[in-house]
Amino acid sequence: MTFFRDTSIVFRRQLRLSLREPAWVAIGLLQPVLYLVLFAPLLKPIAAQLGTTNAYTLFVPGLLVQLAIFGALFVGFGLIGEYRDGVIEAERVTPASRTALLLGRVLRDVLQVAVQGAILLGLGLLFGMTGSGFGIILGYVLALILTGAIAAAGYALALTVKTEDSLAAVANGVSLPLLLLSGILLPMTLAPQWLQTLSDVIPVKHIVQGIRDLFVGSVWTAGTLWAVIWTIVLVVAGIWIGTRTFRRQNA
Description:
The chain has one domain (2-44, 51-249). The protein is 79% helix and 0% strand. The chain has helices at residues 2-19, 23-38, 40-43, 55-73, 76-85, 87-92, 98-127, 133-161, 164-181, 193-199, 203-215, 222-249. The chain is elongated. The model has no long low-confidence stretch (mean pLDDT 84).
């Protein structure tokens, strides 16, 4: 029970810090909403070429994954501030589990993306998105699990570089290839063969495709299976790397 209590304490503290600055939540939601409003209508004339009858059903799953990536990859900026202010040093002298120190923060990030993702899905339905209700819920859950994986890795990266400048450079260097090669904006089937081959090695691409399959009701497919497998692999790896980094930095 001590582990859950420690996780809850860290989670509540991090949540209070977020609620004091609600502008960050709004800013995090603004980008995918702008994509939804300004970019998705451009896909309607070519929806048939993209293999769908509804551009929003194709585009919203990608935006959900984009929200998970960008909503979690940059969480380390706050941790660097805590590290500089001595918060991490203070936590180091407590008997709290290092996994709890990480997981409490990750759960806050997952909750934040959960709220933003729910709003995004609501707007997508308002704009005309159709699909399987059960599949949409499953895709939403997968995106939240992916958020946890990326947030854990983001915290590990922050504790490793320890400066905002270095974190920004690395995070931007990682996020841009993910955005372009994972098929978030457009399916990679439209890309030349060499680009499709390159994108095949990126796990997020398979997660995006699997969530798209779920949205249209294709639950039991190879695409959804690979999406689940890669999501589990990433979250296990993220928590392991994040915990290991917390232990090393707090040894």
